[in-house]
Amino acid sequence: MADQKIFSGPRIRRIRNAKGLTQTAMAEGLAISPSYLNLIERNQRPLTVQLILKLASVYKIDPHELQGEAKGSISALREVFGDPLLSGELPGDQELIELAEAAPNASAAMVKLFRAYREQAERLSDLNELLAREGRATALSGARLPVDEVHEIFERRPNHFTALEEEAEAFTALLDPGDDLFGALKAWLKREYGIVVKVLPVATMPNWRR
Q: Does domain 9-66 have CATH number 3.40.50.300?
């Protein structure tokens, strides 16, 4: 441990919080100043061998807990940011270390979410291959999401779908709304399906505007 600087600020902070200690109280137990502990927790000072031994003695901490904890997480996070969807977003190693150490639970959740996404992408790729073998080739790709396909369709058609436009015009003619389209829709829903529409003030459901 003497040959390698160990920066374990977030881990020290988690240990302190888990024991319900203030920085002043922990610093007193370690015989250091609160300002020095603050620097350690912000990774601006490395742990010394003496301080690691003190932590092990006073707080019954395994010295190995203070080093190498984030290695597996860093490797997994590097895999996440290596995905084509995140191309160009890969943080440097130091940023990955900080992410893994400062927010281990969030990092683990991110990795779990990525692996679930990748599994779905692989299933989509398998479906694409199956459809292709059946002569129903698609443009779907495992590196793309279904929403990308939808966006492309809208872009190709400039938001104009002839069939929908014709149906809308026919329905409008059926309603014959005059100047009260909303009233005509309410009457049609009640007449055809027994659905009664009632308009309430916005304050009734402030978080739902539609």
A: no
- pLDDT-above-90 percentage for the chain: 20
Task: Say which residues have a Cβ less than 8 Å from residue 171's Cβ, sequence separation at least 6.
Answer: none
Give the Cα separation of 10 and 13 in Å (integer).
5
Question: How confident is the model over 138-166, as a mean pLDDT?
Answer: 73
Task: Decide: helix, strand or coil at residue 51.
Answer: helix
Task: Give domain limits for the chain.
Answer: 9-66, 164-204
Q: Which residues contact 185 (CB under 8 A, 6 or more apart)?
A: 175, 177, 197
d(CA 1, CA 157): 64
- Per-residue 3-state assignment (H helix, E strand, C coil) for 172-189: HHHHCCCCCHHHHHHHHH
pLDDT tops 80 at residue 181? yes
In terms of pTM, does the model score above 0.70? no
Residue that is written with structure tokens 């779907």 in the block? 140
In the predicted model, what is the mean pLDDT of the chain?
79
Strand, helix or coil for residue 164: helix
More confident residue, 200 or 147: 200
**Sorting pLDDT into bands at 50, 70 and 90, what band is 2?**
very low
Which CA distances in Å does 95 have to 69, 106, 142? 15, 14, 28
What lies within 8 Å, CB to CB, of 37 at 6+ separation is: 12, 23, 26, 27, 30
